[in-house]
Structures are given as C-alpha cells and as structure tokens.
Amino acid sequence: MDxxxxxxxxxxxxxCGLAYRARVRNAPAKTRWLPxxxxxxxxxxxxxxxxxxxxxxxxxxxxxxxxxSDLYWIHLDLERMNLEILVNQRSLRGDPLRPGVTLDAEIWxxxxxxxxxxxxxxxxxxxxxxxxxxxxxxxQRGIDGRKAKWEIG
Length: 153
Fold this sequence. Notes:
The chain has helices spanning about 35-40, 115-120, 130-135; strands spanning about 10-25, 30-35, 50-65, 70-75, 80-90, 90-95, 100-115, 140-145, 150. It has one domain. It is about 10% helix and about 50% strand. By secondary structure, the chain is mainly beta. The strands form two sheets. It has a five-stranded mixed beta barrel. Strand 4 and strand 5 form a beta hairpin.
C-alpha cells in the first residue's frame, strides 16, 4: 500500500494470531483481550503479544506445507470482533476442540493493510452451509419513493 492509502477515511486490515499457547475449556466463554505484558508480564516478549479468551465458532485441521506440522485454523468470537488464529496441534491442551467451547490462548498478533486489489480478490464463494432457498426467502422488493429496488433483508 502506498502513502495515499493511509490518508483514506478508513483502512481495511487483515488480522491473524499465531498461538504459542492454547487451552480448550468446556465452560462458558468470558471474553478477554489483553496485552500479554499486562496478563502475564513474565512471558511477554513483544508489544504484539496478546492474551485472549473467546468462544470457538469453527475450526479446521491443516498441515503446514513447509514444515509438515499439523495445525488448527480456529475462528474465535471475541464479542466485539472475530479473530482467526493458527495453533500447532501439539500446543493445544485441555478439552476436545469443537464449536462452542472456550479457547484461552497467548498469541503473536499479525496484520496487514489490505489495498483495493486485495479487497476485490477476497470473495470466498457461496456459503455451502446455507440452502439456496434461504437466499430467495430473504429477497424482498422495496420502494424508496422513486423506483423499485431489490434488497436482501
């Protein structure tokens, strides 16, 4: 991104956490999002180290193509935002991983600013978990005073 991009009224940022410690708890999530130097000062190494806790929305096992390590991609609900994190399966402790459980993790937060090209290439396709009929059921015809328009409600 060039300097002009930082003068825009809003920035689109992609974030991901790389977890070096993670524990699954089968308990209600009490969301937490703190700098690691406040949560566990003796373990904090960098200003982008964070301690967090949230509800697991989804997860998927992956294999690192370079190292061969088994990983989990975990989509985490932190109330005010969702965050994707990667956890080495050997570093994951506690109860079995499944949607709805609480995940406590210490992460190295990584991010990058998305430019227009990156934003336009982020289409991930139709959500296969939704039936096509669901899309049509939400389609409504509305009138804004001048012309008819179609809206997804």
